[in-house]
Inverse folding.
């Protein structure tokens, strides 16, 4: 009992300190990463930004492939001179449920501000962003397959 | 004269010049028994390759004499085949399952991209699901699974998968009904070049599943019985990207 009495001031001191620390220590921020208009390193694979980057990058990378160009969708969004008609891409995105008109417009402005597209054409940085998005998704899929099938490559 | 020569050359081009699905197989040229190693049909690259659990059978068929059967054996299985690459178009096939039990496996036709068609390079596909309260045709949209519609046991269903690599999307129609909304590819692709009949081995109820009559869905839809299809694409005649005819 005497020992408890002797320890009591310390117990009270630690309790007070604990309560004080709880209020003083900054709480960790748990804000979700933005997927719309957020940093490009965190682009969600199916976000409107990533969708536009993926679409425009493939249009650029495949522009000399006659089989790609024969696709009705490609023919639909190309101008007679072979350039991409961004207004028609916008129509397509709305029709396919990939973005609303307002989202598409915001994405285009956002990607231009990041130098990923210029005059509705994807830039080298935009192509690199596409490669990054593709690689990140492939890594994610491989991890998923490893867990599900015990392998991530064809037999 | 030059235009005429180009036009004749374009006529001679295989279907893949137009980016569509140019493959067909009704399995009627095969002997009964193992499907693996069989090499019939048209528009394929290589032979059927994979598990010996898939057989050619005359027990039931949607057209002709043969179809492919897999009977539950308690093991995860697949059989695959490469086909001439497509960027857009409709893969059409027939599917039939003997049970609707929620405790039976889900046989799935995955379409793939890569030198070796395999479940690990699947892009999207349609299965006859035994998962959930209502068994039905199901798709994988990105990483999410969705039901398309219910099915009845022992009934052939025509399944059309419309693919569009430009937007990395596909949609599905069952028995020539309205197409579903668009689903997401699991990856981003510039072409699709293989398919697999896959069994996920998720249940314990015995069943059999059949596949038959793989074809270009656009040509099937466009062609009245007993006729051939001529499709004209708008474009410039002086380049290979321009006008052409596929039949």
């Amino acid at each position: 009992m005497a020992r408890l009495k002797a320890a009591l001031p310390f117990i009270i001191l630690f309790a007070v300190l604990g309560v004080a620390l709880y209020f003083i220590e900054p709480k960790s921020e748990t804000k979700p990463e933005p997927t719309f208009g957020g940093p490009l390193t965190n682009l969600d694979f199916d976000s409107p930004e990533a969708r536009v980057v993926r679409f425009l990058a493939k249009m650029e990378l495949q522009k000399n492939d006659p089989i790609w160009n024969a696709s009705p969708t490609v023919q639909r969004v190309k101008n007679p001179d072979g350039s991409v008609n961004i207004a028609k891409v916008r129509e397509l995105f709305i029709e396919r449920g990939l973005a609303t008109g307002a989202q598409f417009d915001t994405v285009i402005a956002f990607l231009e501000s990041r130098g990923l597209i210029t005059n509705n054409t994807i830039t080298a940085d935009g192509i690199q962003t596409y490669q990054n998005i593709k690689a990140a998704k492939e890594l994610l899929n491989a991890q998923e397959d490893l867990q599900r099938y015990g392998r991530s490559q064809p037999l | 004269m030059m235009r005429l020569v180009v036009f004749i050359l374009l006529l001679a081009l295989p279907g893949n010049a137009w980016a569509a699905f140019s493959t067909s197989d009704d399995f009627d040229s095969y002997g009964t028994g193992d499907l693996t190693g069989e090499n019939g049909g048209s528009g394929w690259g290589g032979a059927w390759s994979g598990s010996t659990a898939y057989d050619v059978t005359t027990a039931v068929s949607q057209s002709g004499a043969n179809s492919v059967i897999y009977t539950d054996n308690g093991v995860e299985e697949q059989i695959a085949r490469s086909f001439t690459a497509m960027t857009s178009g409709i893969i059409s096939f027939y599917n039939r399952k003997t049970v609707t039990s929620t405790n039976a496996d889900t046989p799935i036709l995955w379409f793939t991209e890569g030198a070796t068609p395999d479940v690990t390079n699947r892009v999207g596909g349609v299965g006859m699901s035994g998962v959930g309260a209502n068994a039905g045709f199901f798709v994988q949209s990105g990483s999410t699974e969705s039901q398309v519609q219910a099915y009845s046991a022992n009934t052939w269903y025509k399944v059309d998968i419309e693919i569009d690599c430009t937007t990395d999307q596909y949609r599905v129609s069952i028995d020539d009904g309205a197409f579903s909304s668009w689903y997401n590819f699991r990856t981003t692709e510039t072409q699709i070049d293989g398919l697999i009949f896959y069994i996920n081995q998720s249940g314990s109820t015995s069943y059999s599943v059949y596949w038959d009559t793989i074809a270009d869905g656009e040509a099937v839809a466009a062609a009245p019985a007993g006729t051939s299809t001529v499709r004209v694409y708008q474009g410039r005649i002086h380049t290979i990207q321009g006008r052409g005819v596929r039949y």
Residues 48-149 of chain A form one domain. Residues 23-39 of chain A have pLDDT under 50 and may be disordered. The longest strand of chain A covers residues 117-118. The beta strands of chain A are 117-118, 121-122.
